[in-house]
Structure formats: structure tokens, C-alpha cells
């Protein structure tokens, strides 16, 4: 007799890999993030640098997409993209955004909120020239988020800019880095029986951080 097919509602997982306790966590969220990111890198989870970026447009409709973290420090979280893309246009009108990391294999989520700003042109130039040649050409070839007639448009643009710039394409004026300056962090560790660990860090007026436990 054939077993009935499972539905999405039937899917279950017990989270039992680790725990997140206030006494063992760092008082500064950046230190906690660094520890978890380094553990994700060491564990070789798929795409440990991938993060969801959420923005909100003038129509108040939120949108999300995956971007890659390229740097982080006390100043914030950095990624690079086309300034004229959908997310770029939304950030120009509303600089508040959110990031989320989900390291499935480690049963961990990190949520970050704050204000986004462009990084300096020099820093964007420095990173752009460290990229592989085809990625640098691709930044010129793709009118990101715009409607195009087909893939042939991208191929033709890539060929055009490769011939124009040869081995030295400059950084396009419409492409560069953003930095989110966090004022809110949340660390989620999956636990058994859905009694998950959640620690929230909220920035205070003096620049310090208030650490609190949230109910799952």
C-alpha cells in the first residue's frame, strides 16, 4: 500500500545542535556575529556569506533579495551592487533596511536592522578592481532590474564592454558598495520542542548595547 504523500504542514524538524545562553554570549553583538560567522565558515556550510536584504519602497511594499556580505566591522555590514537596481532605488528613497543570515546546518539565524549608506568611492574602487575580469565586465553589461528583450542583450553588452575596456574596465558610476549601520541585532538558535533561544541587542543612546532574551 502506498504511503500518503507528506504535505508542507507535515514537515517537522527537531533543533538540537547547540544553545545560546546569556552567560556564554558576547556583550557586544558584533563579537557574537563574528563568532557565529567564523563557525559557519569553519563548518563549510553552503554560502555562509549569503544574506537576505529587505528594503521598503515608496509604495510601502517590502521586497527581499539575496546579497553577499563583503566586509564587516564596528561601522557596519558591507555589500556591493548596482545603485540603479530595484534595491538601490528603494534605498535612495528609504535608507532603513534589514539583513538576515540563515545557516540552516547550524540551526542559526541572525537578524540585523539599521540605516544604510553608500561607502566611499575609493573603497568601492578598491573592491571593484579586486574582482575577476568577467565580473567587472558584467557590472557594465547588466542594466540590473530593467526589462530586457532576452539573454542576448546581456551577451551583446558583455562583448561590447569587453572590447571597449579590454583588461582594465573602470568601476561603473552606477555600481558600488553599501553599508548598513546596525542599531538592532537578533541571534536565534534552534532548540528542542520549539523552545528556541533568542537574544536581542538594542543600541542605546550612549552607543552601548542592551542584551535581552526574547520568547521564541
Short overview:
With 216 residues, the protein is of the alpha+beta class. Helices cover 25% and strands 32% of the residues.
Major pleated sheet: 9 strands, antiparallel
Overall tally of domains? 1
Q: State the low-pLDDT regions, or none.
A: none
General shape: globular
Q: How many beta strands in the DSSP annotation?
A: 9
The CATH homologous superfamily:
Electron Transport, Fmn-binding Protein, Chain A
State the assembly state of the protein chains.
Answer: single chain
Structural class: alpha+beta
Helix content: 25-40%
Topology:
Blueprint: H1 29-43, E1 50-56, E2 62-68, E3 71-73, E4 76-82, H2 86-93, E5 96-103, E6 108-118, H3 121-128, H4 133-141, H5 151-165, E7 175-189, E8 197-203, E9 209-213
Antiparallel strand pairs: 1-2, 1-5, 3-4, 4-7, 5-6, 6-7, 7-8, 8-9
Helix pairs in contact: 4-5
List keywords for this structure.
9-stranded antiparallel sheet; 9 strands; Pnp Oxidase, Chain A
